[in-house]
Design brief:
CATH architecture of the largest domain: Alpha-Beta Barrel
CATH superfamily of the largest domain: NADP-dependent oxidoreductase domain
Number of strands: 13
Largest sheet: 8 strands, parallel, barrel
Radius of gyration: 23 Å
CATH topology of the largest domain: TIM Barrel
Strand content: 5-15%
Oligomer: single chain
Length: 483
């Protein structure tokens, strides 16, 4: 393997090797869930068909390994009038899915003031309020991305509004949202690094000190941060933890079997998950995992990759491999999944009830799969739409989604000598024009670069759009030459 992982390091990181690892505060090893300060897998999660639980050493919480991400909520059928309170979102279905989740052991619900047109917290609060408060943990975020919200008072109002929308008087898990993301100076318009923005959004304005005070008052039970982008911001926040200025009870990172070793190679601005996780593990900071499927890419792999996964385990779903990988490291507290449909929720509950940890052989196999996927050169877009709206009307996520889908289905071919080139060319162009209107296609990108600073994956969006447009133009020139 190009990225070998020694048996020693594998056992250090993966739950499958807990029996072979000496006890350490940095690891979530098997424990008595009632033992304060201990960390590990709760025995209640190891019985037949019971949700695997992880123990939070900071508060003693037993947290479900599957966390419910409230970022992509189910919507009302097309043509149905919007609800005056919850807009286009199907609150009845949200309630049903939340009920099913809680009934089957899921107790961690992750939302944000900016999700679902700003309505996710409201919809989440309505659904959860119907259950006893001690049956679930609420995670939400300080999503003060806009530079008009960088002041202390504006950010405080955002926190207070979250409490109101969620119909609660305390937040179980409060995150500084997407630390490391870039932005612009509110006065000069100058582009700022992720490190500078992190300082301004959370440190220099006194916001984190105020949040610590709220934690002391019991209005926040766990304080942490999520990270994308500038690695120096990640280092800064961990240094403040090491120096004792702040204590991070948890940190949310992107972790999946492709990003484990290939995040930096896919995009030089990203950091491999093995490094991010390792920094948290050695400090004993529980990790909350986002993007276990990398925006759905690891649930919709190429036919060849899917065939390999099915050959190894015919009964396992494609997505379950990714969820098992994300949940296996012993320092993982919960793995978030944005489950729009009931069938996704049911499948993910089954995967973690209980977790079948990744073995050393499974890990080697998935590293081989990751190497194959990496070779396809897909755009690492998760469809989060943080880059939108484009000031020139370009459908950035739609373009990337079509390109990645065509790679998966074998409709991207660089050689005219390929016997299937004509078929692939036609399928790509017809699908492109159908899924992305001409005026919103990549050819209209002027390279203003306003989108790049908002991308959690740090994709060089104009460069990728230019690459795709050049490919599209080559296909159209070929077509014109044959007419």
């Amino acid at each position: 393997m190009n990225k070998p992982l020694s048996r020693r390091n594998f056992l250090k990181y993966m739950a499958a090797g807990t029996a072979a690892v000496a006890p350490s505060a940095a690891l979530l090893t098997a424990c008595n869930p009632s033992a304060k300060g201990a960390a590990g897998v709760s025995p209640t999660g190891n019985s037949a068909k019971a949700m695997t639980m992880r123990h939070n050493p900071n508060t003693g919480d037993n947290v479900s390994l599957l966390g419910y991400g409230m970022m992509r909520l189910p919507q009302l059928p097309e043509g149905t009038p919007e609800d005056p309170e919850t807009g286009p979102f199907d609150q009845e279905m949200i309630n049903r899915q939340v009920d099913y989740a809680i009934e089957h052991g899921v107790n961690y619900f992750d939302t944000s003031p900016v999700y679902c047109r700003g309505l996710s917290e409201r919809c989440t609060g309505i659904a959860l309020k119907r259950h006893p408060r001690d049956k679930y943990f609420i995670a939400t975020k300080l999503s003060n991305f806009d530079n008009s919200l960088w002041g202390l008072e504006a950010s405080q109002k955002m926190f207070e509004n979250s409490l109101h929308e969620l119909q609660t008087d305390y937040i179980d898990y409060l995150l500084l949202h997407s630390t490391g993301g870039g932005g612009r100076d509110p006065e000069t318009g100058e582009q700022l690094s992720g490190l500078d923005v992190c300082q301004r959004r959370f440190i220099d304005n006194g916001l984190t000190d105020w949040l610590v005070e709220q934690k002391q008052k019991g209005r926040i039970r766990n304080l942490g941060f999520s990270w994308h982008g500038d690695y120096r911001a990640f280092e800064l926040l961990l240094r403040l933890h090491d120096e004792g200025r702040y204590h991070w009870d948890f940190v949310q990172i992107e972790l999946n079997y492709l990003d484990w070793f290939y995040a930096n190679e896919i995009n030089g601005a990203n950091v491999d998950a093995v490094k991010l996780y390792g920094e948290l593990e050695k400090r004993g900071i529980p990790a909350v995992i986002m993007e276990p499927l990398l925006g759905g890419r690891l649930a919709s792999v190429s036919d060849n990759v899917a065939a390999e996964l099915k050959q190894r385990d015919p009964d396992a779903t494609i997505a379950s491999w990714a969820f098992r990988f994300a949940g296996s490291p012993t320092g993982v507290l919960t793995v978030l999944s944005g489950m729009t449909y009931m069938e996704h929720l049911v499948e993910n509950v089954q995967t973690y009830s209980p977790l079948q940890p990744i073995t050393e052989e499974d890990h080697e196999f998935l590293m081989h799969i990751a190497e194959e996927i990496f070779g396809l050169k897909e755009v690492p877009c998760t469809g989060c739409e943080y880059c939108m709206p484009c000031p020139y009307g370009i459908d950035i996520p739609g373009i990337f989604a079509h390109y990645n889908r065509c790679i998966k289905e074998g409709y991207v071919s660089q050689s005219e000598r390929d016997p299937h080139y004509a078929e692939a060319r036609r399928a790509f162009l017809v699908g492109y024009d159908r899924s992305v209107p001409r005026l919103r296609q990549a050819s209209h990108c002027i390279g203003c670069n306003q989108c790049t600073s908002h991308c959690p994956q740090q994709i060089r969006i104009p460069k990728e759009l230019q690459r795709i447009d050049a490919y599209v133009e080559s296909l159209r020139q070929y077509q014109a030459g044959r007419i």
